[in-house]
Prior knowledge:
This protein is of the alpha/beta class. The protein is about 15% helix and about 20% strand. Strand 1 (about 1-5), helix 1 and strand 2 (about 20-25) form a beta-alpha-beta unit.
Amino acid sequence: MIQVKDLREGNINALCEKAHQLMAAGSESRDTLPISVCNFKKLRTLLTDGNLYGSSKVVRKIFDELTCLKVLGMSGSRVYSIKHIPKKIGKLIHLRYLD
């Protein structure tokens, strides 16, 4: 399990091939969930905290590419422009917990 507090691209790219669980926490009020999170192809759990912003582009890409997710928790995050759950959630056939 990896807990990332510094969300700069270089800090998480080296970990992306082996990680199964990731908790991303924003340390500043304007931290954003990086698009490189979608490189974690074996990721089973993705949790974010309330200090983290997520663009609609990143969220759509998560639904499209992280097909091994079993747990997705983004309830505390400030996600922009998401008014409904994308249809691509159907690709997450292993998803058991959505928050």
